[in-house]
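Below is a filled-in request sheet from our internal design queue. Each sheet records the structural input a requester submitted and the sequence that came back. We keep these sheets so that new team members can see what a complete request looks like end to end.

REQUESTER: design group, bay 2
PRIORITY: normal
MODE: inverse folding
CHAIN LENGTH: 331
BACKBONE (tokenized):
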């Protein structure tokens, strides 16, 4: 049956079939080619979208804004300091109001329940721009980037996430890999394994049975052999800065170094990262933590800048994939 995503919210990849994810990826590849050729079909003329950010952002906000403007839609940006949401107005009432004004709502914040609640009450598609437990638009961009750089289908690709295996990116990867029949290894310390949500693990293993995916959690260095992608993320996510000392202690052995890349045994292994990244001390946070005695770099500068690193292709692809999601759901 033909895929039709019109009117659907995009809250997690777990809500979509592999065919629907394939459809969004194909659309993203097509929209990227068109943009490169100078073609924007302006299929969102007359539409308006609103972006709600309760956490900071560079890529996601700009991707939504450029994607919408390329296709002719109007955009409103609201951060937590400049709207009533959560302070003087409930999420339910906010959703009902915004649904009267806008054709789609993007939300970035803390609890997945908030983005689910917005989708329940808004009456228009809601797109998840990152919560504490998921980041589905990032995974679409990452899958697209893998397809551009790996000469094999996704269901033969092995992705190893090295670091904070219980963060939003690690869970988002579990969902993406389970759905697309891929091999995923969450490679991190045993102490963090105890914090993994076992209901999520059970759900992805159910999906994996249907798609042929392999989803593993491991602290064994042998588990990274044969990786096509080594993926890193910051060790303390937004809102978790107090955890930095403990995370540095736990995650330094999982820092992505040239040795770790070589230990995959795959000279073509890609290095990927959702960004922003601590790969040097050119940020206030990395520098101030260094002064306190903590090296928070999750990847070395050599790997980050190496020929195998595709991090800026990923960043660009955020825009093309987010455009695909908006077009597929509201055009
Ligand atoms: N990767 C990502 O979501 O980046 P931003 O936090 O800048 O949006
Ligand atoms: N895990 C990171 C991802 C940023 C895109 C965070 O939530 O801060």
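RETURNED SEQUENCE:
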């Amino acid at each position: 049956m033909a895929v039709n995503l019109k009117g659907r919210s995009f809250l997690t990849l777990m809500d979509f079939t592999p065919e629907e994810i394939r459809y969004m990826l194909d659309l993203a590849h097509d929209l990227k080619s068109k943009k490169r050729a100078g073609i924007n079909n302006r299929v969102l003329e007359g539409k308006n979208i609103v972006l709600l950010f309760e956490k900071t952002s560079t890529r996601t906000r700009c991707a939504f804004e450029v994607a919408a403007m390329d296709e002719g839609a109007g955009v409103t940006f609201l951060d937590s300091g400049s709207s009533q949401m959560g302070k003087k107005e409930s999420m339910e009432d906010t959703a009902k109001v915004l649904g009267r004004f806008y054709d789609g709502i993007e939300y970035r914040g803390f609890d997945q329940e908030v983005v689910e609640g917005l989708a329940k009450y808004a009456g228009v598609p809601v797109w998840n721009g990152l919560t504490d437990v998921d980041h589905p638009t990032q995974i679409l961009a990452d899958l697209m980037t893998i397809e551009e750089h790996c000469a094999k289908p996704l269901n033969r690709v092995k992705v190893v996430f090295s670091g904070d295996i219980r963060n939003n990116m690690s869970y988002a990867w579990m969902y993406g890999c389970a759905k697309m029949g891929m091999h995923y290894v969450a490679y991190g310390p045993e102490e963090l394994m105890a914090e993994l949500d076992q209901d999520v693990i059970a759900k992805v293993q159910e999906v994996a049975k249907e798609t042929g995916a392999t989803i593993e959690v491991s602290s064994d260095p042998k588990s990274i052999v044969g990786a096509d992608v080594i993926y890193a993320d910051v060790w303390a996510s937004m809102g978790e800065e107090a955890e930095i000392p403990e995370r540095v202690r736990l995650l330094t052995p999982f820092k992505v170094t040239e040795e770790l890349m070589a230990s995959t045994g795959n000279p073509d292994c890609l290095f990927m990262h959702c960004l922003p990244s601590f790969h040097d001390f050119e940020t206030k946070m990395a520098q101030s933590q260094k002064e306190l005695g903590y090296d928070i770099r999750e990847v070395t500068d050599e790997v980050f800048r190496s020929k195998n690193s595709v991090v800026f292709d990923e960043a660009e692809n955020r825009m093309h994939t987010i455009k695909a999601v908006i077009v597929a759901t509201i055009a």
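SHEET NOTES:
- Residues 28 and 321 are 5 Å apart (CA to CA).
- Residues 130, 167-169, 233-234, 237-238, 274 surround norvaline (ligand 2) (CB under 6 Å).
FILED BY: M.R.
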